[in-house]
Q: What sequence folds into this?
């Protein structure tokens, strides 16, 4: 393991273009073919593949000593593993679990409390899309060192997912979070439906992964902020969450966001209530971390571009004098440049902006606060896996 932001800032300053990438998002098969997060079989040599969440890597597999077990080509001495029981379902899960684990479901699939009704001919494909997004979420949480505990293990503190459709009375479910249970309307997996809702809600961005990152932010607020040492600092930065949520929700949908919201928040919805400001900012933090990490893994950079962006100064951070502040600031400024480049790439294809947001200085302090909370909780927000 090595320090993520030390490596990140050094590559940004270098700049990192032309240097060997750490390949945190691409791994080699035993035949040399590049492997990616979603792969379950090598397209070049047909090797069986699996994702090992503990090490955040895809590896080709070799048959183990017992039926249904496998060893890792990347680490043959790591022991025996089994492939998730959801591999051969529409979920098409490519994750691994240790042979010693009794549950035949991997850590990501074990979070499911309710899966879609697969007798509906549309639901198998919907479930596949949902699980792809959820696995990316869970992989990132594990990489950050955050605890991912199924409700089946700890009902009070655990996390679970319900992927459901309309009930017997024809009522659509409400996507949201309550006491560790994240509910998703399975129709969100339909691109046309999701785009219709996005337009009706005047949202610039709406994806399955975005839903999950937002809702899991509520879950970790309960785990990391509520009744803990960060609560007073949260209230000073985000506002007092004891304000009536129902009244805030009603006001938001009657009046909309304040006219000056772009100067203080990551999105219009973040203005609704401190809980939503936290969840929206949390989601953006995960978006930024994953996208920059992916870009660095492939050697992408916008440092050679002539962008007229003024970098954020240290004074915008939650703790300007924090020892890791400079590296975090490098990360944020690299994200601004990368997003600008990717927005132009999207426009060149006639697509909407890759990142249709503008981050104000006030949001940088909130992002830094979230980073410090995650680092304290998981101890790995400043780290990524060792380069392959």
A:
């Amino acid at each position: 393991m090595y320090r993520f932001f030390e490596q990140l800032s050094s590559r940004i300053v270098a700049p990192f273009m032309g240097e060997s990438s750490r390949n945190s998002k691409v791994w080699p098969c035993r035949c040399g073919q590049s492997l990616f997060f979603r792969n379950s079989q090598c397209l070049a040599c047909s090797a069986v593949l699996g994702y090992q969440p503990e090490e955040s890597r895809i590896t080709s597999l070799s048959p183990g000593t017992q039926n249904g077990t496998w060893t890792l080509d990347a680490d043959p001495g790591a022991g025996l593993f089994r492939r998730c029981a959801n591999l051969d379902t529409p979920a098409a899960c490519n994750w691994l679990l240790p042979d010693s684990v009794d549950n035949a479901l991997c850590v990501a699939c074990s979070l499911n409390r309710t899966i879609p009704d697969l007798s509906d001919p549309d639901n198998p494909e919907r479930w596949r899309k949902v699980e792809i997004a959820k696995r990316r979420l869970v992989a990132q949480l594990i990489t950050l060192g955050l605890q991912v505990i199924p409700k089946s293990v700890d009902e009070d503190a655990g996390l679970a997912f319900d992927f459901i459709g309309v009930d017997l009375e024809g009522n659509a479910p409400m996507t949201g979070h309550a006491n560790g249970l994240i509910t998703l309307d399975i129709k969100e997996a339909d691109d046309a439906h999701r785009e219709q809702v996005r337009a009706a809600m005047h949202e610039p961005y709406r994806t399955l992964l975005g839903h999950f990152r937002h809702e899991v932010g509520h879950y970790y607020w309960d785990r990391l902020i509520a009744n803990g040492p960060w609560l007073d600092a949260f209230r000073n930065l985000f506002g007092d969450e004891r304000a009536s949520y129902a009244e805030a929700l009603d006001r938001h949908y009657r009046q909309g966001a304040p006219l000056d919201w772009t100067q203080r928040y990551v999105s219009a919805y973040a203005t609704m209530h401190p809980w939503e400001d936290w969840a929206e900012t949390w989601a953006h933090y995960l978006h930024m971390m994953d996208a920059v990490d992916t870009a660095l893994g492939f050697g992408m950079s916008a440092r050679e571009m002539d962008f007229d962006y003024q970098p954020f100064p240290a004074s915008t951070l939650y703790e300007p004098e924090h020892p890791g502040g400079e590296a975090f600031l490098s990360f944020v400024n690299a994200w601004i440049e990368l997003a600008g480049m990717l927005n132009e790439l999207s426009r060149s294809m006639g697509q909407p902006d890759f990142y249709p947001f503008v981050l104000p200085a006030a949001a940088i302090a909130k992002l830094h606060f979230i980073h410090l909370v995650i680092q304290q909780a998981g101890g790995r927000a400043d780290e990524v896996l060792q380069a392959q």
Remarks:
- Residues 274-297 form the longest helix (24 residues).
- The chain has three domains: 1-21+225-388, 25-106, 107-207.
- The longest strand covers residues 57-63.
- Confidence is low (pLDDT under 50) at residues 11-22, 384-388.
